């Protein structure tokens, strides 16, 4: 069984070799010796330092393949590039900063061997800032509501999936990739195991508030719940308008001298505003479904794929 280990790389020249070599050691220790690495450089803005580190790994190890992207595509799209290039029976995703630590691989693979299609590692105690932890909580709640994620399922960027899950995921061609959304569409035979979250060894997180919001917004491509909410909101305000109108009429009968100009006007505005939202929501249902099926923006652009060929092997043996 071949394991494809996909690692998106962004300004990771100081950590990626350690991640790869420690992962090799751990896979050998677990007696899972058939593996390949698919390292995706997400157009790192570091004057080629990350690519130089990746090319060094290509020269040193035949099991390493490097996918060089022509422009920054984001973490999830970079992982998709790696999934497309991998040829394994099982796919593992890790980060490039030693926070998804190779020493935790055994926990995921032991759980995976029980027959699950997808296994996530999740952190009981995160080594993130309070702001990042709050963002993770907001994302967790959003995914639960919009994607109908099981309440007891906890996730992270450290996961193991079967080949058929990969095969389905790579059929998705929209630029607005959200891997959890894709995986939850594929199967419900999913598990998660607690793992230790290690501190970042070098630098700080590359996720800014803008990038986090952009990633979070990709969830909308996998759900029409927000459009349905517009419909429900329209019904709600229409109901308020009707009740208000009934109240104004009753009040006029009970107290004929009551001035009803402003209340009746507000009731009318509320009612027709509700109707507008309701019909916009219905139209949005159709537009949303068309959008989900017709979006054709590219996920990523591959500049070049680097790996050792047979001539390189012969030269190295000499």
SSE topology:
Elements: E1 3-9, H1 16-29, E2 35-41, H2 49-60, E3 64-69, H3 75-85, E4 90-93, H4 105-112, E5 118-123, H5 130-147, E6 159-162, H6 163-169, H7 179-186, E7 190-195, H8 209-217, H9 225-254, H10 261-294, E8 302-306, H11 310-317
**What share of the residues lie within helices?**
40-55%
Which CATH C-level class of the largest domain is it? Alpha Beta
Order of helices and strands: EHEHEHEHEHEHHEHHHEH
User: What's the tally of helices?
Assistant: 11
CATH fold assignment of the largest domain: Spore Coat Polysaccharide Biosynthesis Protein SpsA, Chain A
The largest sheet is: 8 strands, mixed
Strand order of the largest sheet: 7-5-6-4-1-2-3-8
* C-alpha termini separation: 30 Å
Instruction: Output the radius of gyration.
Output: 26 Å
Anisotropy-based shape: elongated
Class based on secondary structure composition and strand pairing: alpha/beta
Indicate how many domains the architecture comprises.
2
- Average pLDDT score: 81
Which band does the percent of strand residues land in? Answer: 5-15%
């Amino acid at each position: 069984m071949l394991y494809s280990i996909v690692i998106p790389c962004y300004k990771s020249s100081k950590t990626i070799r350690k991640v790869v070599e420690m992962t090799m050691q751990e896979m050998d220790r677990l007696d899972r010796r058939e593996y390949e690495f698919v390292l995706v450089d997400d157009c790192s803005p570091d004057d080629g330092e990350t690519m130089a580190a990746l090319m060094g790994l290509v020269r040193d190890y035949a099991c390493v393949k490097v996918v060089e992207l022509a422009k920054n595509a984001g973490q999830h799209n970079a992982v998709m590039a790696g999934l497309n290039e991998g040829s394994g029976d099982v796919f593992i995703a890790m980060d490039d900063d030693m926070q998804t630590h190779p020493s935790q691989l055994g926990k995921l693979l032991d759980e995976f061997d029980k027959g699950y299609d997808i296994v996530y590692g999740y952190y009981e105690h995160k080594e993130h800032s309070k702001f990042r932890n709050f963002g993770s909580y907001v994302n967790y709640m959003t995914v639960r509501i919009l994607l109908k994620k099981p309440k007891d399922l906890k996730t992270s960027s450290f996961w193991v999936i079967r080949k058929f899950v990969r095969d389905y995921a790579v059929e998705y061609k929209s630029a607005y990739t959200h891997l959890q959304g894709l995986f939850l569409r594929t199967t419900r035979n999913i598990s998660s195991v607690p793992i230790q979250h290690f501190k970042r060894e070098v630098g700080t997180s590359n996720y800014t508030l803008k990038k986090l919001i952009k990633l979070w917004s990709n969830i909308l491509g996998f759900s029409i719940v927000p459009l349905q909410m517009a419909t429900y909101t329209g019904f709600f305000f229409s109901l308020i308008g009707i009740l208000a109108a009934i109240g104004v009429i009753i009040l006029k009968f009970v107290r004929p001298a009551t001035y009803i100009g402003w209340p009746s006007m507000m009731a009318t505005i509320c009612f027709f505003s509700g109707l507008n939202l309701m019909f916009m929501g219905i139209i949005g249902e159709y537009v949303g479904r068309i959008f989900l099926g017709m979006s054709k923006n590219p996920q990523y652009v591959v500049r070049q794929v680097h790996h050792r060929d047979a001539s390189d092997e012969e030269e190295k043996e000499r």
